[in-house]
Write a structure and sequence with these properties.
This protein has 332 residues and is mostly helical. The protein folds into 4 domains: 85 residues; 59 residues, no CATH class; 69 residues; 101 residues, Alpha Horseshoe (Serine Threonine Protein Phosphatase 5, Tetratricopeptide repeat), CATH 1.25.40. The protein is 75% helix and 0% strand. The longest helix has 18 residues. The termini are far apart. 42% of the residues are buried. The model has no long low-confidence stretch (mean pLDDT 94). This is Tetratricopeptide repeat protein.
């Protein structure tokens, strides 16, 4: 294999194999660093960051982005910071998905992101959106409501993806126990007026259990049928697939649940994101006759890790509530 980082970069761009491309980007980074070529190192990391996102490799994403951001800060004449704003959003999200990243570090990332967007004339709205998402993740509903109101008043500045913003509002109302408000908020998505590469597939999953719990089985099934076909072959959609698996088990569709479980196995083996594994193990724990033993224990361990980082018991409460539903169904 060549040791020229630029040749390795060219090979990575040309190959159609994701795993091969990932290895080529990594080697390009290694060779650029060995040769002290920072420009090649930046270009190689630019490709590696995309490859790591596609491979759901959160650790590589964070370390790669950190290097790129430091490069942008130490080479202001190259004016690369603006190119990293979207990447910074990914880094903030990925950091939240990993319980080993301390809460203080999450807050620091959000504050630094706000500082940069405000300085660039883009406002603080997107930073507050990510604070809002973190509050929901921790189960801090009071702070989440304050941030929802703050975000709703910020009509100027940089707007995130409209579909993703709407999806977050849906999550907010469901967390607050407001199913009808969530359905109303989701209408632009459900009507096909707002979408992105993750929406509406992600939005459908939010409603599966709430509609089922509300006795609206036909609506829940409709959400499942529409949503699952959008994610069933996507190796980066383990959380969404897990929501469908949980729904199928809780709604008594065991044959379909078995099929979905088997389909998710290779994705779960490849995915390195702890939050995705929490969703998957939680779903699998609902019927270990189908999925095998040990999922409940693993789900509890992951939930405890997130709660230790977040300073709340929210994720553990979510897991226990879900397991209680399965137990009640088994006793019925």
């Amino acid at each position: 294999m060549t040791t020229d980082p630029y040749e390795l970069i060219e090979q990575a761009y040309k190959t159609g194999d994701h795993a091969e491309a990932f290895a080529l980007w990594q080697e390009a980074v290694r060779q650029a660093d060995l040769q002290g070529d920072e420009e090649a190192g930046y270009e190689a990391r630019d490709g590696l960051l995309d490859a790591a996102q596609e491979a759901t490799d959160g650790v590589t994403m964070l370390t790669t982005f950190s290097w790129m951001l430091n490069y942008a800060d130490t080479h202001p004449e190259e004016d690369k910071e603006d190119d990293l704003f979207w990447r910074y959003k990914w880094a903030i999200a990925v950091a939240r998905f990993m319980p080993k990243v301390p809460l203080e570090r999450l807050h620091a990332l959000q504050d630094d992101f706000e500082r940069r967007t405000v300085a660039a004339g883009l406002g603080r709205r997107t930073a507050d959106v990510y604070r809002w998402s973190l509050a929901l993740h921790r189960g801090d509903l009071e702070t989440a409501e304050q941030l929802r109101q703050s975000v709703s008043k910020q009509k100027s500045g940089w707007l995130d993806c409209n579909a993703c913003d709407t999806d977050l509002l849906v999550q907010h109302w469901l967390a607050q126990g407001e199913l009808e408000k969530a359905l109303k908020a989701a209408k632009p998505i459900l009507d096909g007026k707002r979408s992105c590469n993750r929406i509406p597939a992600r939005t459908y999953t939010h409603f599966l259990r709430p509609l089922l719990d509300a006795g609206r089985a036909e609506e829940a099934q409709d959400m499942h049928l529409k949503g699952y076909k959008m994610v069933r072959r996507d190796e980066d959609s383990l959380r969404e697939q897990s929501a469908h698996l949980a729904y199928l088990i809780l709604s008594g569709q065991e044959k379909d649940a078995q099929k979905v479980f088997k389909a998710t196995l290779p994705f779960a083996e490849k995915n390195t994101t702890p939050l995705a594994h929490l969703a998957w193990h939680s779903a699998c724990a609902l019927d270990e006759k189908i999925t095998g033993e040990g999922h409940a224990q693993k789900a509890r361990e992951l939930a405890a890790a997130f709660d230790k980082r977040g300073g709340t018991g929210h994720q553990t409460e979510q897991v226990e509530t879900l397991l209680a539903k399965a137990a009640a169904r088994g006793e019925a």
